[in-house]
């Protein structure tokens, strides 16, 4: 068959993919999962230990701000702890992908689970971010004053924990993309 006939059948568009190319993607996936553990676990610990006490008129009357005063912050801590555990539990699958780069079923499973966990982490981080925004800026139409002027350390701790959580979101997006790239390369090799 001549070259024009092969091009019309679509054979000319298939680029050969090196066999070890998916191994590099799997190593990057493992590194991203390790970074995701650090981000989500750090965010859960930072928010879970976040507390500040302010004295009122006397030393016996005090105002206390803790993370569990807000349901959004409780959700944030639980979701980040779940994601840290999820990252730990998926590390063995990531190691299997390094050793057996042709594993398709487990890659599809990881992509589906990563997408579900991405939605969960985005919901928890967004709920906490809305409360942190209100704490920093307040809402003049509802007469909610910004409280970060009084509870500065508490607000800084909450804002810092959001950074770790949104870093975990970025790691999940990258692992989903890498898994999809690895699957598409396997499909090219099979065809």
Plain-language structure description:
With 191 residues, this protein is mostly helical. It has five helices and two strands; from the N terminus they run ααββααα. The protein has a two-stranded antiparallel sheet with strand order 1-2. The protein is elongated.
Annotate the secondary structure layout.
Blueprint: H1 3-9, H2 21-48, E1 51-55, E2 62-66, H3 71-99, H4 105-137, H5 152-190
Antiparallel strand pairs: 1-2
Describe this protein with a few key phrases.
2 strands, elongated, mainly alpha, two-stranded antiparallel ribbon, 5 helices
In short:
This protein has 191 residues and is mainly alpha-helical. It is built from 5 helices and 2 strands, in the order H-H-E-E-H-H-H.
For the largest sheet, list the strands in their spatial order.
1-2
Number of helices: 5
How much of the sequence is in beta strands?
A: 5-15%
Mean pLDDT score: 82
Q: How does the overall form come out from the CA principal axes?
A: elongated
Major β-sheet annotation: 2 strands, antiparallel
Percent helix, as a range, is over 70%
């Amino acid at each position: 068959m001549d070259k024009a006939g092969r091009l019309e059948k679509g054979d000319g568009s298939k680029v050969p993919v090196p066999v070890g190319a998916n191994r590099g993607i799997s190593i990057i996936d493992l590194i991203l999962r390790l970074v995701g553990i650090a981000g989500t676990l750090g965010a859960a610990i930072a928010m879970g230990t976040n507390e500040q006490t302010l004295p009122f008129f006397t030393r016996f009357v005090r105002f206390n701000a803790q993370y569990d005063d807000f349901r959004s912050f409780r959700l944030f801590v639980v979701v980040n702890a779940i994601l840290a555990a999820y990252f730990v539990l998926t590390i063995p699958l990531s190691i299997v992908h390094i050793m057996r780069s042709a594993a398709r079923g487990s890659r599809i499973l990881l992509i589906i689970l990563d997408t579900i966990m991405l939605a969960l982490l985005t919901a928890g981080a967004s709920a906490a971010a809305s409360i942190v925004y209100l704490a920093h800026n307040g809402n003049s139409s509802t007469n909610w004053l910004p409280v970060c002027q009084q509870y500065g350390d508490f607000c800084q701790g909450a804002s810092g924990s959001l950074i770790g959580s949104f870093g975990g979101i970025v790691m999940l997006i990258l692992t989903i993309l890498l898994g999809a790239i690895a699957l598409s390369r396997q499909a090219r090799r099979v065809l």
